[in-house]
């Protein structure tokens, strides 16, 4: 018994010592000059047109002088694809990598293996699915994003897209550009939003903001999520909870996708699920392109089963010139722009700076910013 008790005490001391060493190593890891790599889109001539246009390569989140004044190295590039790209060259000795959802630098398991100094992956914006999160967790990396930085921007964009599809706006605009005038060619499939049933798949911050903005339009509002809203918030939005996704979708005139991309939601809207939707349904997706089966969406638009599809997310990104969504009928697609308004850029640039300051001091981030912390994924990615 004495020997057994001694072993228990030793194990306890070892665990305490190991915990102490982890805490110390985390703190020490944040000390000294660091190499920070940012992956953003190039703005070219537009970079100088607005001093607040900070989310591009040229303006580098507005933090270059601050970082370099403290002795850190700051490499910024838009070159992120292939074995010879700039991102690949800098991965082995980078301590921090900052990417955006709008021009994602895909941080794969293979790249994580090469990144011997890597400690922190930051998303300037919301959505960290461009990172292999299980691999990051297994490697002991921290992954964080600027939660809430562009939720208003995306929700407003979704409302705009709903109206564009419902009113059949784009063909009318194209008529004007082409010098035509054919009211009937627009009016035969233009409707009011009032009285329509709108359902959001996922009801986090963006979904709730969208529902609040839709309430004055007099729609029938539904939502499906893994967590039911509290009664007071439900009352504020005027939305009803639907536990069964397919049951909700079968009721919707308009479906808005607001769920994160995870292994569970990848390909969520496949051929079989789209077939269960109302004929002529309108779909808005500003979440992630890979939530949709690409060809199933094309087939649905071609057949008319999908009456209109609009979004700004693709897979992969940037979308190649031959991506079929560019050429399907009744689409209102754009590049990934909804969350990178100037107002959103200022918010997510400030959030990145704040988190880097915490990182250099060895301090924690606000809890809501963590996607991977101490080997554990945030609940929305599990």
Q: What level of helicity do the residues show?
A: 25-40%
Order of strands in the sheet with most strands: 2-1-3-4-5-13-14
CATH class annotation of the largest domain? Alpha Beta
| Total strands | 14
Count of the domains: 2
The portion of residues forming beta strands comes to 15-25%
What sort of overall outline do the alpha carbons produce when their principal axes are compared?
globular
Low-confidence stretches: 1-30
Q: Determine the number of helices (DSSP H or I, runs of at least 4 residues).
A: 14
- What does the largest sheet look like? 7 strands, mixed
Residue-averaged pLDDT, rounded? 92
Annotated CATH architecture of the largest domain: 3-Layer(aba) Sandwich
Structural overview:
The chain is 36% helix and 15% strand. The two termini are 43 Å apart. It contains 14 helices and 14 strands. Helix 9 links the parallel strand 6 and strand 7 (220-224). It has a 7-stranded mixed sheet. Strands 8-7-6-9-10-11-12 form a 7-stranded parallel sheet. The chain has 2 domains: 35-147 and 341-381, NAD(P)-binding Rossmann-like Domain (Rossmann fold); 150-333, NAD(P)-binding Rossmann-like Domain (Rossmann fold, 3-Layer(aba) Sandwich). With 382 residues, it is an alpha/beta fold. The chain is globular, with a radius of gyration of 23 Å.
